[in-house]
Amino acid sequence: MTPWPRCSASRPRATTAHPYLAYAYLGLDRLYRAAAAARQALKRPELPAGLRHPIALLLGQIELQRDRPAQALRWLEQALQERPDPQTRYLLAYAHYRLDHYRQAIAQLHQALKARPDAPEDWRRLLLACYLEAKRYREAETLLRALLRRHPGDVVLWQQLAALAIARGRDHQALAALVLAWHAGDLSRDTLLAIVRLHARVGIPEKAARLVRRWRREGRLDDDLRTLRLEAGLWLAARERERALPVLERIARRSGQGKDWLAAARTAAELEDWRAVRRAARQAFRTGAAEVAEAHLWLGVAAYHLGDAATARKALTRARRSDRTARLAAYWLGCVGGEYRCP
Fold this sequence. Notes:
Blueprint: H1 10-27, H2 31-43, H3 49-65, H4 69-82, H5 86-98, H6 102-115, H7 121-133, H8 137-150, H9 155-167, H10 171-184, H11 189-201, H12 205-218, H13 225-237, H14 241-255, H15 258-270, H16 274-286, H17 292-305, H18 309-319, H19 326-336
Helix pairs in contact: 1-2, 2-3, 3-4, 3-5, 4-5, 5-6, 6-7, 7-8, 8-9, 9-10, 10-11, 11-12, 12-13, 13-14, 14-15, 15-16, 15-17, 16-17, 17-18, 17-19, 18-19
């Protein structure tokens, strides 16, 4: 075996080897050993001055990778003292951000971007995150709009602008931003639902209901009970009962719950669709509705309007036994018996 060559100045060479060991360990993803080698290098007084900044910067990056922002802060501050360059300021800002030190992070990013206007996009996005966390909404909006001028198709930026508008109580602006995000690209279910809810909040539930129906049919929203209940509620809020009724009946068929059939019966009664009321009330009985007295009431009212006096009298007599429906049942029994002139 060939022996290693002797070095006349072995100690200095060993010292200057530490930085290279640090980079070598880092390349092998052995972060602990890389950090140890870098720390050893910084302890050596004979370490060339030009290496102190990159080694301290390397230590800061390693500690960030190890998810230790407090330790990273120490080394990055040392690196900044050695050389206050924009890259070091950016990393220092990121460490502050991870520690919820938003004011310090913003200050470092301002200086970094001033020194390097052509900085990577990530720097400005980090500044945006700091503004939002610090609730500096005016500065956040200015930066967001600048980013959107560069990237008008970025859905995430439109979503952030909408969230910012909601935080500032500007529902119409939030809605506009989310609609633009929708046109910019595919959105998550939560964002689509946010668009829907904002339409309802600004007073246009009919548009919100149409969007739910459209996105449900397109498969962008799940065709499940939760989505159907949302759609039905929006139609009712818009006083579009004729559109709400088939959705309510669909909900009841899927859920098999008497309370859903009774909700359909109430809406059908408002539409004076007495056959639909009778159908829903009978279905409520079949599902074992807890609100059985209300089912009897609606069956009796529907039978009265359809000219079936015998069924009406029988159902309303049963409904009168419950305190919850007694007064209405007595009234409609008077209608059946001809005591009152009823609609």
